[in-house]
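User: I'm curious whether this sequence folds into something compact or stays loose and floppy. Could you predict its structure so I can see for myself?
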Amino acid sequence: MLRQKLLVTGLVLLAGTAACAQGRSVTAGTEATPAAQKPGAQVRTKTLKNGLKVIVWADPDNPSVSLYNWFRVGSRNERPGITGLSHFFEHMMFNGAKKYGPGEFDRVMEAHGGRNNAYTSEDVTVYQDWFPRSALEKIFDLEADRLQNLAIDPKVVESERGVVYSERRSSVDNDNSGLLMEQVQATAFVAHPYQIPVIGWPSDIESWKQEDLERYFRTYYAPNNATLIVVGAVTPEEIFSLAEKYLEPIPAQPAPEPVRTQEPPQQGERRVVVRKLAQAPLLQMAFHGLKASDAEAPALDLLVRILTEGDSSRLHRRLVEEEQVAIGVGGYRGAGFDPSLTWMLVDLPPGGDLGKAETLLDEELAKVVSAGVSDAELRKAKNIAVAEFWRSLETNSGRAQALGTYEVFHGDWQKLFSAPERYEAVTREQVQKVAARVFARNNRSVGVLVPEAEADEAKKEAAR
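Assistant: Here's the prediction. I'll summarize afterward.
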């Protein structure tokens, strides 16, 4: 099966971290509110003896189940020579273990009415299972087998090495936007491992060694480095019982070495020019931004929406409709363990004027810094954000993703339920303040993709 690769952690808002209750079951809420009315009252947690934290959101009205296993490992944990290993193991985890051999994980799950996927980012690797309640114990058996007994067979390694390299060619080497983004990100970070592409550098993909793989798996695929989320037609007691039966016997490992490197402040604009045979130019700006738990993260999230989301957004109106220098604009902010990048992306038409597009983008960002945003713009962004938040919790899968995001990146799953209030608390002054903090010229890396002419024209251009 084709596995997804997530390059972006997404627009995760909300601030702060908090210590979680360990080694016992807990429920959300306070004594003053009836249990049925408490936000997250159906959620309970337990930490197993081997350090695996299990979070259960029971919903008897939905007969299906979503199981998400979050491992705190991504390209952030890699180094030169082994880049791409986190994403590689996303593939390897579906290629056979002791009890269920090659191809059996997918076959058995599908035979029981389930399906699965996985994704890798700079910070985490997440395995996703969706299945009927009747398959509950079988899924725990499958997950325990690959976590405890994954077969790192040299023949399978070589086969998957080819698959990953092919994925790199399609998503980066032969994708102009992906290629430019990779170069901009590697330029924006000079010290922090966020400079490493999730897919890995080509020479590293070609040269991983067997001992590299075995050491990496042993270090990061330990129960004490994971958080298990189960949502749907279950009870906390049965999930805790199954986890104790199948997952608790898997021994804990020494905690991985923490990432101690901090990116030094950028002291001047950096620029990247990619010349490539292409139909149209591209413009990308990456600003050093915030980590997921930063107190200003909600304000930055709303600001990016005001600038780029929808036909009434500032950049779409100015660059696409009024000046007609672009055919599309976009933007997002990374939200990881450490300060990530906030991106502005502009797609130009064939023959488009890169200089004019950059000038107009600069003008719009400067307006936000100098004059802020309007009440109407902020209200619209809040409405969209809150609506998307509640829609994301309509499904078991969305709930599992949200619980994992807040537990892993914010340190406490209960912060999920105060998200709308944190959006509403953002003021115009806070939006303007975060714009000044992030959109400074010295804080950015600018990338342009310049279409290269064919043969003779390319030579003439090079001579000029």
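Summary: The two ends are 49 Å apart (CA to CA). Confidence is low (pLDDT under 50) at residues 1-35.
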